[in-house]
Write a structure and sequence with these properties.
heterodimer, A: 259 residues, alpha/beta, Rossmann fold, six-stranded mixed beta sheet, four-stranded antiparallel beta sheet, 10 helices, 10 strands, B: 301 residues, mainly alpha, MetI-like fold, 2 domains
C-alpha cells in the first residue's frame, strides 16, 4: 500500500484556521509537507488555496484584521511559523515565494536576483556575483541573460520574468519555495518551461504549489491537497488522487463535474 | 419620418454643445494669450542683460531685477529643501505606516483643507511663529519656511499619489524576500515614486514662486540694493549660511512696487519682470513634464 503521507517531513500543519476579520476562511486544515517533494494545492476559485499558501510565509501579517489559529511546525527545528513570538521576517528569509503575476523590480536583472542577499547584509561584490549566477543557473535563465545582467528586468519576456522571480527567490537558498499559480499569466510554452524547472528544483528544495490547473498538479506534484470552501477535502499521493480519489467530492472536481 | 426628425434634433443639440464647448475653451485661451501678448509687447524692450544685473533704482531705465531674481531663487531653494523631506516623510507615513482608522482619516481631510487655506493666513502664522517667536527675522530663511508651509499640503498629496501608484505586488515581492517595511520603502517604493514626487514638488513650487501676500506679511523689502552674503567664505568650513538671515525681495513684490509708481516707464519694467517670472514658471512646468516623461519611460507597470 502506498503511504498517504510523506515519509520525511519538512513541515506539519496542525488544525490551521484562518480568519479575515470575522470571516472564517480556512477551517481545521491538517497535513504534512514532505521534504524535497512537490505538494500541490488545488481547488476551485475562492476555496482558500492562496490564503493557505500565504500562511507559510506570514504574508497575511502585512495587512490588518487577520488572525491565525493552529500551528505550522517547520522542521528540523520545530519552530511554529504562526506563533506571534516568531518574527515573520525570519520566516520569510527561510521560506521564499513566487507570485501569480511575474513581479520583478524595475531594476536591473542582476539587482533583482541580488536583492534578497542585500537585505541579508551581503555587500561583497564577488560573493554577490557568484550567488546571482548560481541562482540564475538554477532557474535555467543564465544562458539567456548572462550578457545583459545590467539590463532592466522589465525588458524580459513574461516567461523569463517569472524565471527571474524564481531565481530571485532561490538566491537566498530557502528551505521551502512557495508558488502561487506561477503560470496563470503565461503562455503554454513558458508554462512548460516553468513546470520543467519545478521538477528540476524539487531535488534541492521543498516546494508547495497552488494551482487552478489540475493537469499541472498531476504533472509536477508528488502529493496533492484538495481544498473546497476552506476545508481540506482530501490529501493524498498525486497518482492516487488522480486515479482513485477516496472522496466523492474530489472525484467530481477532478473529473470536471464542478469548479 | 418621426424617427428621422428626432435624430436630426438630437444631432443639432449635439453640434450646438460642441460649439459652446469650443467657445468656452477659447474664452480662457484667448484671454490668456492676450494677457501674455500685452505683457510681451510692453516689456520686451526692457529685457536686456543690464535689466538682470542691475539693482532697483529711482531712474526707471537704470532699474533692474538683480536682487529680485536672486531673492526668488534663494527663497525657492530653501522652500524646496524644506518641503521635500517633510512632505515626503508625511506621505510615506500616511501611505505605508499609518493604521487605517478615524484619526488617519481626520488627518487626511485636514491636509486637503490646508491646501485651501488662503496664503496670507500662512503669512500671519509665519509672522507670529517664525519672526516673533523664533526670531528668524525678516529673512530668506523665514520666507523659504513660510512658502514651504504653504505648499506642504500639495507636496504631501502629490507624493501620496505617487507612492500609491507603486503596485502592491512590488511591496509583496520585497517583503517576501525578508525586507522590512523601511527597506521596502527606501529600496523600492521611493525610487519608483520619485518621478511623481518631483513632478508634484515642481508644480507646487511654481505656485509658490508667484506668491507675494505671505512674504509681504512677514516683511519682505520692496526696495533692496544689495545681494545676500555669498554661500561660501575663504576660511574653513568654506560654506557660509549667513545668506539665510539676510533680508530679501522677490519678483512679484518687485513687480508690485513698480506697478504702483506713477511713472509710465516703471510700468514697462513691471511688464518685463512679469515676462521673466512667467518664463521661470513655464521653465519649471516644462521641467516637470520632462521628468515625468523620463520616469515613465524607465518604469512601466
Amino acid at each position: 500500500m502506498l503511504p498517504s503521507s510523506p515519509q520525511v517531513e519538512k513541515a506539519r500543519v496542525k488544525d490551521l484556521n484562518f480568519y479575515y476579520g470575522s470571516v472564517h476562511i480556512l477551517k481545521n486544515i491538517s497535513l504534512t509537507i514532505g521534504e524535497k517533494q512537490v505538494t500541490a494545492v488545488i481547488g476551485p476559485s475562492g476555496c482558500g488555496k492562496t490564503t493557505y499558501l500565504r500562511c507559510f510565509n506570514r504574508m497575511h501579517d502585512l495587512y490588518p484584521g487577520n488572525r491565525y489559529e493552529g500551528e505550522v511546525i517547520l522542521h528540523p527545528d520545530y519552530v511554529n511559523i504562526l506563533s506571534p513570538t516568531v518574527d515573520p521576517i525570519e520566516i520569510r528569509m527561510r521560506i521564499s515565494m513566487v507570485f501569480q503575476k511575474p513581479n520583478p523590480f524595475p531594476k536591473s536583472i542582476f539587482e533583482n536576483v541580488a536583492y534578497g542577499l542585500r537585505v541579508r547584509g551581503w555587500t561583497d561584490r564577488a560573493v554577490l556575483d557568484e550567488k546571482v549566477e548560481q541562482a540564475l543557473r538554477r532557474a535555467v535563465l543564465w544562458e539567456e541573460v548572462k550578457d545583459r545582467l545590467t539590463h532592466p528586468a522589465l525588458t524580459l519576456s513574461g516567461g523569463q520574468q517569472q524565471r527571474l522571480c524564481i531565481a530571485r527567490a532561490l538566491a537566498t537558498e530557502p528551505e521551502i519555495l512557495l508558488f502561487d499559480e506561477p503560470t496563470s499569466a503565461l503562455d503554454p510554452t513558458a508554462t512548460a518551461r516553468i513546470e520543467e524547472l519545478i521538477l528540476d528544483l524539487k531535488t534541492q528544495v521543498t516546494i508547495i504549489i497552488v494551482t487552478h490547473n489540475m493537469q499541472q498538479a498531476a504533472r509536477v506534484s508528488d502529493f496533492t491537497a484538495f481544498l473546497y470552501l476552506g476545508e481540506l477535502v482530501e490529501f493524498n499521493k498525486t497518482d492516487k488522487m488522480f486515479t482513485a480519489p477516496s472522496n466523492r467530492l474530489t472525484e467530481d472536481y477532478i473529473t470536471g463535474r464542478f469548479g | 419620418m418621426r424617427l428621422q426628425s428626432a435624430i436630426a434634433r438630437n444631432r443639432f443639440v449635439d453640434s450646438l454643445f460642441a460649439i459652446l464647448g469650443l467657445l468656452a475653451m477659447l474664452v480662457g485661451l484667448v484671454t490668456l494669450l492676450a494677457l501674455f501678448l500685452g505683457l510681451a509687447l510692453d516689456g520686451w524692450s526692457r529685457l536686456t542683460w543690464r535689466f538682470f544685473t542691475s539693482y532697483p533704482s529711482r531712474f526707471p531705465v537704470e532699474a533692474g531685477i538683480l536682487s529680485a531674481w536672486v531673492g526668488t531663487t534663494t527663497v525657492m531653494f530653501v522652500t524646496a529643501l524644506t518641503a521635500v523631506p517633510i512632505g515626503v516623510g508625511a506621505a510615506v507615513y500616511l501611505e505605508e505606516y499609518a493604521p487605517k482608522n478615524w484619526l488617519t482619516d481626520l488627518i487626511e481631510i485636514n491636509i486637503a483643507n490646508l491646501a485651501g487655506v488662503p496664503s496670507i493666513v500662512y503669512g500671519l502664522l509665519a509672522l507670529g511663529l517664525l519672526v516673533y517667536q523664533l526670531h528668524l527675522g525678516q529673512s530668506i530663511l523665514t520666507a523659504g519656511l513660510t512658502l514651504a508651509l504653504l505648499i506642504l499640503p500639495i507636496v504631501v498629496t502629490s507624493a501620496r499619489e505617487a507612492i500609491r501608484s507603486v503596485p502592491n505586488s512590488i511591496r509583496e515581492a520585497a517583503h517576501a524576500l525578508g525586507a522590512t517595511k523601511w527597506q521596502t520603502v527606501k529600496d523600492h517604493v521611493l525610487p519608483y515614486a520619485t518621478g511623481g514626487i518631483l513632478t508634484g514638488l515642481i508644480i507646487a513650487l511654481s505656485r509658490a514662486i508667484g506668491e507675494s501676500a505671505p512674504l509681504i506679511t512677514i516683511g519682505a523689502l520692496s526696495f533692496i540694493a544689495f545681494l545676500p552674503h555669498p554661500p561660501w567664505q575663504p576660511e574653513f568650513p568654506y560654506l557660509s549660511f549667513q545668506w539665510l538671515l539676510d533680508p530679501f525681495t522677490v519678483m512679484p513684490i518687485q513687480m508690485f512696487n513698480w506697478v504702483s509708481r506713477p511713472q509710465e516707464e516703471f510700468h514697462t519694467n513691471a511688464a518685463a519682470a512679469g515676462l521673466v517670472l512667467l518664463g521661470m514658471t513655464l521653465a519649471m512646468n516644462g521641467l516637470a513634464i520632462f521628468i515625468r516623461a523620463r520616469f515613465r519611460k524607465q518604469i512601466k507597470w
